[in-house]
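re: that complex we talked abt at group meeting.

here r the seqs, copy pasted straight from the sheet so there may be weird spacing, ignore it
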Amino acid sequence: MAILDAITHSTVAERHRPWPRALVSDEGWRQAVDQLATGRLVLLGLWGDAPSVHMALLDESAGEAAVISYVCKSGKYPSVGARHAPAIRLERAINDLFGLEAVNAPDTRPWLDLGFWDVRHPLGKKTAAREQAPYNFLPAEGEGLHQIPVGPVHAGIIEPGHFRFTANGEHVVRLEQRLGWVHKGIESLMQGATLEQAAKLAARTSGDSTVAYAFAFAQAAEAAMQIKAPLRASYLRALMAELERLANHFGDIGAICNDASFSLMQAQCAVLRERTLRVAEAGFGHRLMMDVIVPGGLGRDIEPKGLAEAAALVAAVRDVFLDLTELYDNTASLQDRTVTTGIVKPELAAQFGAGGYVGRASGRIFDARRTLAYTPYDKLSFEVPVRDEGDVNARVWLRIRELEQSLSLIEQIIGAVPAGAIKTPLGRAKSCEGLGFAEAFRGDVLVWLRINGNGRVARCHLRDASWFQWPLLEAAIEGNIVADFPLCNKSFNCSYSGHDL
Amino acid sequence: MRKILFEGIARGSLTERPPVPDEAALAELAKSVNKESQIRLGRSLSIRQVDAGSCNGCELEIHALNNAFYDLERFGLRFVASPRHADVLMVTGPVTKNMREALERTYNATPGPKWVVAVGSCAADGGIFAQSYAVEGGVKDVIPVDLHIRGCPPSPVDLLKGLLALLRHVER
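got the structure back, here u go
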């Protein structure tokens, strides 16, 4: 309970697992914010649960997490964002969804509620919809500045979001994002859902990370109910997670190069991505492996030929990937676009607790598979690649190095999958709470789950890695030219749906 | 780079034989596509993709249509960057309340004759998100839809079957 040792708290929730959750008053809340502001702790999440707000904290060096809860007084709680910027958007979202107000918050503009809903505060005390009001973008003043509004509908096969650029000639002076367009109300649909329904919703929070979300959700549910998935299921979960990482990293590397008009790389990587998805389908009956992971284990076993196909994929990738890596490394015109473009400073990555390749390309050594090691990664051997440059090039290399690690992990898994059952029965329902993590290809997914006495979901919060990466994109683009934005954006590849929920 | 290019030539094409157009799609289109628009459009279609609230799973499979195995452009189908250049709007997702207006505006910006293809189970009727306060429902609840391609997400082959059915109607 090391994190909670330094935070004044009263009761510790009885059935919150595997990390503790404690009730705090103003003093404990302030101490936690102090530790975030000084960088001793990392913010993992901040979410509403009327009448309370919960905050998940990480002690990176100890590899430990904890949740603190503050019961709001007349719907108010002390702002975290006032002293720790990464919380600002989370507080704006809490206000939109729950009507809980962060006192002294630096930014009180709505975030997910764009003024189109029929109801206000849908997860709190519902009131009539708010009036459509103009959204005030942050000012940027100076001679010769002009604004470029982009979106929500973008010129490609991508998700919707609005970007407001202020530019001086070609140079971006300020980028401000406005998100929330694909808000589907996932957390409200979760409430009262059975665990099976809820797992399906979690698996559709961000389709590219469907395995990671189902994995994190299952881990939260299993922690809460104190059950363990059979070892065979754990290994096969990791196999799917690594196949998903391969497919997405191939897609991203190709797409980043394509945004620098180097389509050869895109064509080659798209072939590798397709081969990976076909192996996924051959093994698990679905190209994205949706709904295979369920609380307790797996909904289906791998096809008999599945492991052999995965082994063949590893060999096929090894056969060509080194050439592609060299192609990337030896093409000066491509390097010219990616090196020193869109730099994220290590201080910012650390402050925001940025996960995935965004954090690790800027010196932040955090990978949920290692820092918060979960089965079977605690039994497997792999490196967590890190770089310090923080530019587009570093984020490409991070993906290349992670691909190599995933190939090795897949080989280890193939050699180690035990025989046996694939599902543990969930047992009798009783009210309980769980916190689960999984490392998606873009970073850590957090799932916090409260199950009620009927075995249904009382409250579930899903936090995508994108929450702490999107703001860094605003910083990374500053001083770069407008034409490099697609490159920067693709090198982040944040989720819109995972963020908007 | 040369090595990779030579290998590509030596290996031969990865592109696979096209699937047969989907029968259900042909039946749905027979009702919605009129003769006049068939004559005017010829055999080439420009597609504008609009995500109106999807989880991005459908986008991944739509992207895959451009890879070497499916090679969408060999059929005269291509993705364009603006609704002004499009004959077909390919819409994914349950339409969220937040995206409704943007979708309507995109539809209105597309010159006629035009078709709308709703892709994915969510685009058909809102899918598992249908009951949410933040969701309008399927695409047909917001703009007229000519063809539904269901699936969660539909595979690239499913998408091709639907699009080839659309193309066949245009050719007639």
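couple things i noticed - Chain A touches chain B through 52 residues (CB under 8 Å). The two ends of chain A are 31 Å apart (CA to CA).
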